[in-house]
Each structure stands twice: as structure tokens, then as C-alpha cells.
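Hey all, quick one. A colleague (J.T.) asked me to put the 2-acetamido-2-deoxy-beta-D-glucopyranose job into the tracker so the inputs and the C-alpha cells live in one place instead of scattered across chat threads. No bug as far as I know, just bookkeeping. Sequence used:
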Amino acid sequence: MGLCSGCVCVCVCVCPCCHLSTSVLQDCFEDAFDQIPVASRMDLKTSIEECSMALNLVLNNKFSEALDLLKPWSKESMYHALGYSSILAMQAAMTFEHKDIQAAMATIKDALHTCQRFRKKSSMVESLSSLVSKQSSDRLKEEEMHAEICYAECLLQKATLTFVQDENMISFIKGGIKIRTSYQIYKDCQHVLSLVEARGGDSEALRQFEGGVKLGIGTFNLMLSLLPARILRLLEFIGFSGNRNFGLSQLREGAATHSLRAILSAFTLLFYHTYVCLILGTGESNLTEAETLLEPYLHKFPKGSLILFYSARIAVLRGNFDKAQQKFQECILAQHQWRQIHHLCYWELMWCHSFLQQWEQAYKYAELLYRESRWSKAIYVYQKAAILSMMSDEEVSRTGENVVELFRMVEGLKQRLAGKSIPTEKFAIRKARRYSAATPVKLVIPALEMMYVWNGFSIVGKHPDATEGLLITIEKAEEQLCTDPSPSEYTPDDQCLVQLLKGLCLKHLGRLLQAELCFSQVLASEKRIRYDHYLVPFTLYELGLLYKQQGDVAKATRFIEDAKLNYKDYSMESRLHFRIHAALSSLKTSPVSTP
Ligand SMILES: *[C@@H]1O[C@H](CO)[C@@H](O)[C@H](O)[C@H]1NC(C)=O
């Protein structure tokens, strides 16, 4: 089926190639012509159409058909190259397998090379300003404009894939990614777009170009606005910070166009609202906007697994866990080509059951992940053991698992990607070390601690009954620690963890003064903490957010700045810095309100 549609398209597109004036082409593409016979050229319009077809195949779960359609032309046509490398990059990001990441990286390199052949040698702005007046070169110019956009997109893809490997981003530079080059190209493209539009240009190719500019400029502004200053410095973006609102508005405009990239702009916004805001932000996302963006695609691709996945994730964030579970199941049933999408669903289902403290079901999904997904065996086994730690001895024995042995496996499963380990993995390894002793001291509510690591309390907080349930569990743990006849060296750390999590539940239940008391207890115990040094800066940050909620901007800023400036070398430091950056920027923009 895929091959057939590929053939049809190849036949259709050979003829339109003749439209391109060969002489004009030869002037500028002599290099390219040395390598490619004329008959194997594909024109811009057809290549965009095929790329769009491939995108629709992906959205209809026909992943290998999409690849089959793009592959034959992926060395000659920039849109085929871009589409092909995008799908592989997406797959690599999901499987997280070294060989997939390497393969995707190699394909992106090929794609960059393909785009490069179509790019103008001199600076695009220079040459285009002079070309703008010459009518005859319109077609050629369009192809060059698209080459710039595709090239920049490939660079961005490369950067994103590196980001997937390592969220602390320093590998951006180490990997030698020319993220600044990509940004500069987008800015040039934006300039060119305004030039051409001012001249009254309006063609299908131009609208497609516009879609690309909005996607790129929007994504860049949004991405850079998320980065704390110290990371921007490392990226040599000195004195520059993206404008979040401008980025969001560009993406909104991009999503509203009828271009190939409209859905990519929509997906970028969806990803931002449903994941980035939660993990690297304060957890305040605009779900209304996410729902509005997804709506048209729900009708167009009712069985599309990516669409179903987002609609399920939105239900999670709304605190509607039953609906979410049902949607994730639908998503799993929708396709079987890409098992990785099942893994994403398992991960989410595991959390849905954890929020409701349905530990046996949560365990089932943790086990599935551990068995099937390669993303991070260390995190999965830790997660499994953490969930089992929440169950009664009798329930654990029914699973046939040995919790202590599972914790002992964590360190051995550590993986390195591009020479770096994943922060959450390092955290799990450090926590699991307790079990290397002959008579281990059990971790206290480890599954709830992991929930906090992934900012799960701001999700479960939307569901008061579930939050009450968690509070009861936390208070039981608190009671046990207080009455423990033989406290260990870990007791103060455990008590602080319990207070932090208790404070979070109380905050979401609207009991703000009690929450403040819990957080203050952690801060008062700072000197007694021996291992979990992350607790203090994270608590300062949470206390800051609590003051923000109460309308005390000055106090909120003071606590969050304290967390930012006075602590270092603790677990998940860069994750907190992202959240701090998001909190401080929202404090700067939020009007001073009275409680
Ligand atoms: C969320 O997005 C919608 C639609 O874009 C907008 O009307 C609304 O003001 C936004 N809400 C917030 C809180 O930003």
C-alpha cells in the first residue's frame, strides 16, 4: 500500500518538474546537477504535498507507510528528507534506544546535506533582497526560501534529539549543535517573509513558508523563554531571552494556517501545555487552549493514536482519571506498529493508578514498562520497587517480587547516553543505595516522592478525594516515623520528605496555613538533613509558590530567589532551576493582588 502510493506520486511529480526553467536552475544548481540526473528531480509543490500525505499517514497510525512514501526521495528532495528524518527522530525519542538515536542522527545529517544543496551560497537576505524585484526568478527563490526553512528545522530537530538525551542541555554545546545558526536562519526567514509580503507576494509556497517561519520563531521564543539565565549563557545566547508570549502567539498563528506545519505548531503548543509546563514549569498550563487546539484533529483523526494520547493526557491534567484511563486504553488498541506509544500510555496509566493509590494496577504497568521499554530500566525497576513499597506484605507476596532485591538492581541498570547519565536515574540510584546495607532501612513513601519529582501533586491536586487519600497515607508515615523506637541516620531526611509532601497536599486542599507550617518544619530541620539535600531548595521554592498564591509577591520572590542563589549540587538541580525560572517570570508579570 505504501509502496503503491509512493509509485503513483513519483509518476505524478515527474511532469511538474518541467515547469522549472532549466536554465535558471542550472545557473544556481550546477553542483546539484552534477550529482542528480534531471529526471529524478521533484518540484517543491509535489514534495510538500507528499510530505503532507506522509504526515496524514502518521496521524492515521500508518507509520511504516509514511516512511515508505518518503524514503525513495529522501536524498533528493528536501521535504522528503525533512519528513523522513522527523519520523525517525520522533521514533528515536520514544524508544530511547542508542541505535535508534544514532540512526536518527545520521538521517538528520543526510537531511541537512540534502537541504544544503538547495541553499543559496551567499547570505539569503542579501541575495533575496536583490531577487525580490526580478519576477522571473520567483520559482527559484521559493525553493531557496524553503531550503532555508528546512535546513533550520533539521538543525532544530538535531537539537531536540540531543535535548531528549540529556535534559540539562549542556550537551547542546558539547554536541556542537549550531542552535544559534538555526535561530539566525529563522530570523532571516522572518525578514524575507516580511519583504515578500510587503511586495504583495501571495502563493501557496509562500503560505507554506510562512507556516515554517511561525513554527520556528514560535518554538525558539518559547524554548528560550524556558531556559534559566545560566543555561542561556552556556548556549552563548548572552543577553537574550525568548519572549514567551510572542512565541505562543506565533505558534497559535501557525496552528491556524492551512500549511503543512499547522499541526506541528499545534502539537508544539500541546506538548508545551501538557508536559513542559508540568515538568519544567510551575504546573500552570492552559488546558482550555489545549482542548481547543486538539478539537479539529479529534474529528479528522478519531483513531489517531497521537491525538488520542493528547486527549487522554488532557483528561489526566483535568483530574479526570477515569476518562483518561479509558482514552489511554483506546490509544493502545488503535495501533500496534509503534509499541513505544503503548509505553507512553503505560507510563501515564501507572501514574493515574498511583494518584488513586490503586497500587496493584500501578504495579502492573510499572512491570510492563520494565519488561518492554528500553527508555530507562533503572527508573522502571526503581518505580516498580517504589510502588511495591506502598503495598502490604501480603499484597507484595502475591506478586512474587522481592522489593529489596529490586532496589539493589537499580544501580546496575544505569545507562549512559552520550557520556551523561539522566538526572532522574541518578536520583533513583542514590535513593536505592539504602538497600545495599545488609539490613536496609526502608524508604518512606517512595512512590509519592517520585510523584513529586514528576510534579504529580499539581495534577492530583485537582482531584480533592485523591488528594485526601494521599494525605492519609502521608500522615500514617509521619506517625510511624514519630513513634519509631529505633530511629536511624535517615530519620531526619525522611521526616522532612514527609513534611514537604504533606504540605503539598494541604496546599491543594486549600489549607494554606497548615501547609506553610509543614514547609517551615523542613526549613527548620535543614542542618539535620544528611542525604536528601534537594529537600531544602525544593521546599523554599514550594513555600515561594504558596506565598504567590496568597498574593504576597515580595515574600514569594524572596524565598524563590533564596532557592535559586544559595543552593547547589543537589539532586535534580537543573529541573528546579527551570521551575524557578518559570515561577520568577510569572511573578514579574502577575499583578500584585490582595489575598
Ligand atoms: C487560555 O487560552 C485561551 C484561548 O487561547 C484564552 O482565551 C485564555 O485567556 C487563556 N487563559 C489563560 C489563563 O491564560
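Adding what we noticed when we looked at it: The longest helix spans residues 138-165. Residues 286, 288-289 surround 2-acetamido-2-deoxy-beta-D-glucopyranose (CB under 6 Å).
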